[in-house]
From TrEMBL, chain A:
Coiled coil: none annotated. Gene3D superfamilies: TusA-like domain. It comes from the Archaea. Residues 10-34 form the UPF0033 domain. Signal peptide: none annotated. This is SirA family protein. It comes from Halorubrum ezzemoulense DSM 17463. InterPro entries: TusA-like, TusA-like_sf.
TrEMBL record, chain B:
GO terms for molecular function: oxidoreductase activity. Gene3D superfamilies: FAD/NAD(P)-binding domain. Residues 4-307 form the FAD/NAD(P)-binding domain. This is Pyridine nucleotide-disulfide oxidoreductase. Pfam families: Pyr_redox_2.
């Protein structure tokens, strides 16, 4: 378990790829610099989509938590 | 007691459903046991796929517009009003102005997508689109006179209507300029928000080599942050800046506000069971087409097939039988790959798309379907 406190959580469980990534991008778009957004996704594609996009956009993927049948991605806006 | 079925939205989903119910529940409608009301905020039905052809001077916006009262069965009450509030506890709709409220026993939301270009600073001033009548007409004025420079097609919002249309536009643009001997003077660039050229990986894998063959530049992981209409640049959240002479965008989309206000879902999309299309947050409410958050494309074929499912389920409910019809994710799309060739995909929740080899026959099939669409709206095809 991480002790990171996100400013916002986006629950994209049930959405197919690339829905979760687009939901994350939407949340980062409206977030302030330094804010942490937590994305909940049960799409396997998110395990590659999210790190690739975070790297491309210069945002930091702080942690990925493996939870019950889904993952939680913590992304800090640059 | 008369059972009241109310459909909000007279696009493809709402119109097909209204006519489906008029047919399916004919005896009950004749006997006065059921009422079907279709509410739309204007008198016309609009067939949006026509807009793709408007910028190239191939179609007119009027080709995609017909009066709802000519398309919808007389057994359906057609009401032209704008719904201002959905109260799912009292099962009541309220309207703008002084129009009386309306109670329902079964509600179907088919309110569709709206464009929200104002989300991106500078986009309204600097960008064009073909996702509205006015946008397609304005783009036509620019495109017909465009003979050299940089044309950028930027997909900004997803989900958006007709996921194939951005690919179609750049394929058609490439062919159109090539046929006119202008392609060497026109740079075409396509941008997409994720790391491939389409949301669906199978369609992306098919389209990417075609784009390379046709010298269509590609920028992936490009999420537009702002447009500078004076400098004619578009900048992404990822830090890429592109120059343009003509910017065509797929603007951000949203649903109507009253859905979120009713607690039915975020951003105007109704949270539904993706098989039954029943709303998660309220009883006796269905959603279909773009309005239903199922994860399948926002496409007319989806609304069409979902309308058949909801029609069967509502007829079962009215007759006191278990509703067993379910939606399997079925989607059909023609994809133009030029001015005289097209591909075709068919897929569902379980089976991924496998685009057919482009052919002139499929192009004419698409145009033929566009003409016969009015039979679909009438519930006949």
């Amino acid at each position: 378990m991480t002790d990171i406190e996100p400013e916002e959580t986006v629950d994209a469980r049930g959405a197919a790829c690339p829905g979760p990534l687009m939901d994350l991008i939407g949340a980062i778009r409206s977030a302030e610099s330094g804010d942490v957004v937590r994305l909940l996704s049960d799409s396997g594609g998110s395990l590659t989509d999210v790190p690739e996009w975070a790297d491309e956009a210069g945002n930091e993927l702080l942690a990925v938590e493996e939870l019950d049948e889904h993952n939680a991605f913590y992304v800090e806006k640059a | 007691m008369t059972e009241r079925i109310v459909i909000v939205g007279g696009g493809t989903g709402g119109s097909v459903l209204a006519n489906d119910l008029a047919d399916r529940l004919g005896p009950e409608l004749d006997a006065g046991d059921v009422e079907v009301t279709l509410i739309n905020d204007g008198p016309d039905h609009v067939y949006k796929p026509v807009w793709l052809y408007v910028p190239f001077g191939k179609r007119e916006p009027a080709d995609g517009r017909r009066a709802l009262d000519e398309l919808v069965d007389d057994a359906v009450d057609l009401r032209i009003d704008r719904v201002s509030e959905i109260d799912t506890d009292s099962q009541t709709l309220r309207f703008d102005g002084t129009a009386p409220s309306m109670e329902y026993d079964h509600l179907v939301l088919a309110t569709g997508s709206t464009l929200e270009p104002e989300q991106i600073p500078g986009l309204v001033e600097g960008g064009h689109d073909y996702y509205s009548e006015s946008g397609a007409t304005a783009l036509r004025e620019e495109l017909l006179e465009f003979t050299e420079g940089e044309l950028v097609l930027s997909v900004i919002g997803t989900p958006h209507m007709c996921p194939a249309a951005p690919l179609e536009f750049v394929f058609m643009t490439d062919d159109w300029f090539r046929e006119r001997g202008l392609r060497e003077d026109v740079e075409v660039t396509y941008t997409y928000p994720v790391q491939r050229v389409h949301g669906n990986p199978h369609i992306a894998e098919w389209a990417r080599p075609i784009m390379e063959d046709r010298d269509i530049n590609v920028e992936t992981f490009f999420n537009a942050e702002s447009v500078d209409p004076d400098a004619e640049t578009i900048t992404s959240m990822e830090g890429t800046e592109l120059d343009y002479d003509l910017l065509v965008s797929i603007p951000p989309h949203g649903g109507v506000d009253l859905i979120e206000e009713a607690g039915l879902g975020d951003d105007g999309w109704v949270d539904v069971d993706k098989h039954t299309l029943e709303a998660a947050a309220a009883d006796n409410v269905y959603a279909l087409g773009d309005t239903a958050d199922t994860g399948v494309p926002n496409a007319g074929s989806v609304a069409h097939y979902q309308a058949g499912v909801v029609g069967q389920r509502l007829a079962s409910e009215v007759r006191g039988r278990p509703a067993t019809a379910t939606y399997d994710g079925k989607t059909l799309c023609f994809i133009e790959t030029g001015m005289d060739a097209a591909s075709f995909v068919e897929f569902d929740y379980e089976r991924p798309p496998s685009p057919a080899p482009p052919s002139e026959k499929l192009h004419w099939s698409k145009l033929a379907y566009n003409e016969s669409y009015w039979l679909t709206a009438r519930g006949l095809l």
